[in-house]
Amino acid sequence: MRVAVRADASVEIGTGHVMRCLTLAEALKRKGAEVLFVSREHPGHLCDEAAARGCIVTRMPVISEPHTDETTDDVDLPDHAHWLGASWKQDAEETGQAIGQVFGTTDWLIVDHYALDARWEAALRRHAKRLMVIDDLADRSHDCDLLLDQNLFSNADTRYAGKVPAHCGLMLGPHYALLQPEYAELRDRIPPRDGPIRRILVYFGGADVGNLTGMAIEAFLALGRSDIDLDVVVNVSSPYAKSIRQQTAGHANIHLHSDLPTLAPLMVRADFAIGAGGATTWERCCLGLPSLVITLADNQRPIAAELARQGMIRWLGHVGEVNESNLGHVLGELLKEGLQEAWSQNCRQLVDGQGTSRVCSLLTLSPNTPLQARPARLDDEALILQWANDPLVRQNAFSTEVINAATHRTWFRKRLRDVDHCRLYVVETPDGFPIGQVRFERSEDAWEISYSLDARCRGAGLAKPLLQTAMLKLRSTELGAIIFGKVKAGNRASRHVFDGLGFESKAATQGTGGGSLSIAVCSDAGSWINADVPRLLLDWLTAGHQVTWVHAAAELPDGDICFYLSYSQIVDGATRVRYQHNLVVHASDLPCGRGMSPMTWLVLEGKDRIPVTLLEAADLVDSGDIYMQVRFELTGTELIDELRAAVTKATFHLCREFVDQFPTSAAKRVPQKGNPTFYRRRFPKDSELNVAQSLATQFNLLRVVDNDHYPAWFNHKGSRYLLKIERADDSIGDSEIKLIRNPHHR
């Protein structure tokens, strides 16, 4: 995974933008990402810090007289445009060049800069698959797929209305605060502050241009409290660093600190803090550290006001409104009163320190992300309403009106109680991040599917895995035949949702001369192929076909086509006559290799080319006419899961192609020619290793064993031992398996 970050630090901008991006970058790197940092060399830049943390760094010079064109796109610039050190067009061109030289294109471009808006972001689209903005102001438009604003606002839900695209996912509030991992690790270990204040932390960030640090020190010294320790953090690059050292000289209870990798240890030791209203606010809250705040920037005012209203901080006022006298007065009162535990507890409840992990999980989502489905609970009510009222969902729904909370509450609670006709699942990642909901509504014999994918998860290829996970969960409770309602070709709104989320959607008029097909799949209940069958069913559902999936041929309804996939039972003629075509997929070059476990036997024989054949089921096993065949080639290193994935890919390809080309595909059947050979059923004893032979000579046997169900084993000195095999890396993947059509079976 490749990630590019565009952020700047300077004496005027401060260090917060770059530092929070570096926190996220380090988390992404721990997940294997390559990170490129693109920054301008303003006075006080942090390019060296980014390089020291293992990022690739591209440094751009500050342009003293950036080129502008007042007649076109350089009007109505952001209020902070002067922070950029170039025109937005120059910056976009140089950033694009940096990405191109290092990555070509990047999976994510993350921009954290008040001087950049939708114009810059749109210009960078060709260099990035997806784009994320980190913002605090909500004062300009953005062209992005994700937006993060970690701040606390009373109007958080509406601040970005009309400022981001309809498809954009929002990560709003301290729940997503980008904190270093130390904060989450320490949070539950630190008891709440209570009683006398014995140690105070002073830190006003990297842009303390008014020297509030010096003012806080003077206010503290005026109280004459030599019994209280004061930890003061000041950047070496601060213009006031020298004067602060002189100011604190000779005071043994005042301790100066500079350029710390993290403030967490100082916050742990402190009983109280004095500081600004920037990103450090969330670090203090996470560790339950009560604080006295003086805001430095206008955007900090509403955040501080809301925090003060909720009892999280004491907001003394804005820079310029606070002097040494009133700061000393308030601090003196606090020292006399001491701290109440409730203040510290309130702070801790606001920020849990897991925000970086949540954002990192979102950025690294992929179709291969493991998912799990659980039944919806009463406390999911607000979340499901949020998904339902997502602008893109409402735009493509049958009713485009926003759903009010009262209506949703009645509907939701009724659905939770209607266990006979409704299954409502929330699908999550293994760490509990909810990515969407899937609902199955029963109407007569059909379960109709509807779903919502969280806007923050769009573009990651999760639509099909979302539905696949929920379908498997449904089948765990519904043991009989499951028939899913189809999506009609004329339902443009629903089809747009499916297509827009990555489904292979085809018009329902395809096949059978203008009508839909009734398709069934029959597989063994414990088959390894079942985990992937929903992908096949969903493709046919979105194409307008009616689909049934069962685990016993006796449960099959009448229909047009039935596929028997990894089904070990003989299907009699009375069952087959209910379908126009009964199809089997077999991994051998028929008529050679009829029988059981053909792929396994071929690997054991040392074959590096595996044919996969689609044929008509017949009375004699694997003897029916052949419709088409593909093959895939092996490197000789694939293990059982990779071999099965390859067979699944080939199987689904043949099934889809038969349906897509029906009835033309059915006319291409050819009888088998040649003398048949047969493979017998394999048993656990067939997985025995010979202790007298090397592992290298028995590697093909190790490749085909199933660690869970029939592992390799051997006898030694009267005891039986199991030997399990796993790959130590992920060098082989499904994407490397290429299917080749057999020209004799078109």
List keywords for this structure.
746 residues, alpha/beta, twelve-stranded mixed β-sheet, seven-stranded parallel β-sheet, 23 helices, 21% strand, elongated
Inertia-based shape: elongated
Percent of residues in beta strands?
15-25%
Number of H/I helices: 23
Main beta-sheet annotation: 12 strands, mixed
Quaternary organisation: single chain
Order of neighbouring strands in the sheet with most strands: 14-15-16-17-18-20-19-21-22-24-25-29
Low-confidence stretches: 485-514
Helix percentage range: 25-40%
Structural class of the helices, strands and pairings?
A: alpha/beta
- In angstroms, what is the radius of gyration? 32 Å
Distance between the termini: 38 Å
The total strand number stands at: 29
What is the mean pLDDT? 88
Report on this model:
- The chain has 746 residues and is α/β, with parallel strands linked by helices.
- It has 23 helices and 29 strands.
- A twelve-stranded mixed sheet has the order 14-15-16-17-18-20-19-21-22-24-25-29.
- The radius of gyration is 32 Å and the shape is elongated.
Task: Sum this structure up briefly.
By secondary structure, the protein is α/β, with parallel strands linked by helices.
Outline the secondary-structure elements.
Elements: E1 2-7, H1 16-30, E2 34-40, H2 47-52, E3 56-60, H3 88-102, E4 106-112, H4 118-123, E5 128-134, E6 146-149, E7 169-172, H5 181-187, E8 199-203, H6 212-222, E9 229-233, H7 241-248, E10 254-257, H8 264-269, E11 272-275, H9 280-286, E12 291-295, H10 300-309, E13 314-318, H11 324-337, H12 341-350, H13 355-363, E14 372-375, H14 381-388, H15 391-395, H16 405-417, E15 422-428, E16 434-443, E17 446-453, H17 463-477, E18 482-484, H18 492-500, E19 518-522, H19 533-542, E20 546-550, E21 561-564, H20 573-576, E22 581-586, E23 594-595, H21 598-604, E24 609-616, E25 626-633, H22 640-660, E26 678-679, H23 699-704, E27 712-716, E28 719-723, E29 739-741
Parallel strand pairs: 1-2, 1-4, 2-3, 4-5, 5-6, 6-7, 8-9, 8-11, 9-10, 11-12, 12-13, 17-18, 19-20, 19-21, 21-22, 23-26
Antiparallel strand pairs: 14-15, 15-16, 16-17, 18-20, 22-24, 24-25, 25-29, 27-28
Helix pairs in contact: 1-13, 6-7, 6-11, 17-19
